[in-house]
UniProtKB/TrEMBL annotation:
InterPro entries: Glyco_trans_4-like_N (IPR028098). Residues 110-237 form the Glycosyltransferase subfamily 4-like N-terminal domain. Residues 81-97 have a biased composition (Low complexity). Residues 81-103 are annotated as: Disordered. The lineage of its organism: Bacteria, Pseudomonadati, Pseudomonadota, Betaproteobacteria, Burkholderiales. Pfam families: Glyco_transf_4 (PF13439). GO terms for molecular function: glycosyltransferase activity. This is Glycosyltransferase subfamily 4-like N-terminal domain-containing protein. It comes from Rubrivivax albus.
């Protein structure tokens, strides 16, 4: 079977968004699915060239260059500043907490600009990639097209290619679109997105989602028109076998480590508030280990002011490490005393909290495989909390209750929770999940043919 995989985010781009497509491309061949990738090429995006070594030589990748209009404007502005002799700001991580938050007017301009992009800011890439995709479909003899989003421009492109070629389209949703809590678009734009998504889904021959809640959500919306599979994100055993070892610090402190970004409604404020309470109360008193929060990765500039204020009150209590390659990120996880996962949406609207409760951040599966205990801040009844209780060890606290979080931090220093009976972390190994996807795509193709499309 031959599959065209459309994924804008793909190595050498880095970050969590590339992992799903990369692992599918790496392992689907083991299950008789020959993959060709149609991807983006954006040197301005986060880069991690080390991931290229994971691609088998049998997987061709066709990259289409694209930079958004906003990226080009920012590059022109930097070039103009450089030509006038402006000195670049220091880039050291230590200086970051003192960087002021972006002005509100800039956020408003960016929101307005984003609302006018169709179907999102990568629409230009999809239009540029269309002739490349058409040539691939004409010459490749593909049995199906699968796209993974965000960006949703990948879905727009794949849907069109599949319709023109008369093959089934499988839509993989890593995140929600119109109902995504991180979607800051105005109501009129979200309404358009919601109608567009419903229209597009009528053309999908199969839908793949990453959480049980989303499976129920899409199954209800589709009402049996096509199958919906839950194939979660996972961990790659090969990554852990190859990951370097990071020697824990010699100071004896207890390190709670967060790896990755805080995006959408996620915010480090609840854990900072709780840590502030613990430190003020002398939680790490005589005979107890000092407590440190270690933030690894591109946390997000919007939190610099809050982190800087915290650092001024508690010097040394927060350690910041800039983005590191994936292998080093795994080493950070394994060297941690405990791992932090923030899933909650804060004390906002209940409908937003309900949506966030149904998310499963990809890092959770690598956290589970690392074997370290996890402090999860979010809805105790959400999908992530249920998964942690079933397959990992750790603590769960509502992110809106700083007193409860502070209690959990104090418990971390004195107890090590056991692994639950019946835990099956291997269920989420990336190669096994690729096998599930291969079976699903074959089933989709068979259904497609049975309806007389083939």
């Amino acid at each position: 079977m031959r599959l065209l995989l459309v994924s804008h985010h793909f190595p050498p781009m880095g970050g969590a968004g590339v992992q799903r497509a990369l692992k599918f491309a790496r392992y689907l061949g083991d299950f008789g699915v020959a993959v060709t990738v149609l991807a983006g090429d954006d040197p301005g995006y986060l880069q991690d060239a080390s991931l290229l070594s994971e691609l088998p030589p049998t997987v061709p990748v066709h990259r289409v260059p694209h930079r958004t209009l906003l990226q080009r404007a920012m590059a022109w502005r930097r070039g103009a500043a450089a030509s006038q002799g402006a000195a670049p700001a220091p880039a050291s991580e230590a200086s970051k907490p003192t960087v002021p938050a972006p002005p509100r007017w800039r956020d408003a301009v960016l929101t307005a600009w984003s609302a006018l992009q169709w179907p999102d800011e990568r629409g230009g890439w999809a239009r540029s990639a269309l002739p490349v995709g058409r040539a691939l479909m004409r010459d490749g003899g593909f049995d199906a097209v699968m796209s993974t989003a965000p960006p949703v421009a990948a879905h727009a492109l794949a849907r069109r290619l599949a319709r023109e070629a008369g093959v089934p389209w499988v839509a993989d949703w890593r995140d929600l679109w119109a109902d995504n809590p991180g979607n800051a678009a105005p109501a009129w734009r979200r309404a358009i997105d919601r109608r567009t998504e419903a229209h597009w889904l009528r053309d999908a021959a199969g839908v793949v989602v990453v959480t049980p809640s989303w499976q129920r959500r899409y199954a209800a919306a589709l009402d049996g028109r096509c199958p919906v599979a839950w194939i979660p994100n996972g961990y790659d055993e090969a990554d852990f076998a190859d990951a370097p070892t990071r020697t824990p610090a010699a100071d004896g402190a207890f390190r709670l480590v967060h790896v990755g970004s805080f995006y959408g409604p996620r915010d480090p404020a609840p854990v900072l508030d709780a840590l502030d309470r613990c430190l003020a109360a002398g939680a790490a008193g005589p005979g107890r280990r000092a407590l440190r929060l270690r933030l690894v990765g591109a946390v997000g500039r919007r939190f610099d002011a809050a982190l800087g204020a915290f650092a001024s009150r508690h010097p040394g209590a927060v350690e910041r490490v800039p983005y590191v390659p994936h292998a080093q990120a795994l080493a950070e996880m394994r060297a941690a005393d405990a791992l932090l996962l923030v899933v909650g949406a804060g004390a906002g609207r209940q409908d937003v909290r309900d949506v966030v409760a149904g998310t499963l951040p990809g890092k959770l599966f690598e956290y589970l495989r690392s074997g370290q205990p996890v402090l999860l801040l979010g809805d105790p009844g959400g999908d992530a909390a249920a998964l942690l209780r079933a397959h990992g060890r750790g603590w769960v606290a509502d992110e809106t209750d700083p007193a409860a979080i502070a209690q959990m931090l104090e418990r971390m220093l004195v107890e090590s929770p056991p692994l639950p009976a019946g835990a099956q972390v291997a269920r989420f190994e990336r190669r096994a999940l690729a096998g599930e996807l291969a079976a699903f795509v074959r089933d989709v193709r068979q259904r497609f043919d049975a309806r007389g499309h083939g």
